[in-house]
Design a protein that fits this description.
Methylmalonyl-CoA epimerase; single chain; metal-binding; 2,3-Dihydroxybiphenyl 1,2-Dioxygenase, domain 1; 8 strands; methylmalonyl-CoA epimerase activity; MMCE/EMCE_epimerase; metal ion binding; alpha+beta; globular
Length: 137
């Protein structure tokens, strides 16, 4: 089940300039910076009430974010929803006719398992499903 808006992902060409802009706009420092090697992306997270803003900048020419920004200006890249059981949501959405970009959940930023829904299945919006990863004990 989708439980809430987890975050808005904003693609940016200049991560440091965008971080300064959002620090000023939101009146607070980011709570986390992270490099996600598997996606060739650097991220910066801001907490805004119960949701987050994620700034994303590609770190290689092959990054999905770099390719996205070659076609579009800085701005909203995706909307992410928290889910309680990502595999169950993936199965439910597949059965409902949505095209998923991932066969299995993968590790994303901010200690999440993630899966993306193809924009063609969601009126042109890239949708991300996010589930908190259970810490290993």
């Amino acid at each position: 089940m989708l439980t809430n808006l987890e975050h808005l992902g904003l693609a940016v060409n200049d991560l440091e300039a965008a971080t300064i802009l959002y620090t000023t706009l939101l009146g607070q420092e980011p709570y986390k910076r992270e490099h996600v090697e598997s996606e060739a992306v650097d991220t910066v997270f801001f907490q805004v009430g119960g949701s987050k803003i994620e700034l994303l900048a590609g770190t290689s020419p092959n990054s999905a974010i770099t390719k996205y920004l070659e076609k579009k200006p800085d701005g909203i890249h995706h909307v992410a929803f928290a889910v309680t059981d990502i595999r169950a949501e993936m199965a439910r959405l597949r059965a409902a006719g949505f095209t998923l970009l991932n066969e299995e959940p993968k590790r994303g930023a901010d200690n999440k398992l993630v899966c993306f829904i193809h924009p063609k299945s969601a009126n042109g919006v890239l949708v991300e499903l996010c589930q908190d990863m259970v810490p290993l004990t």
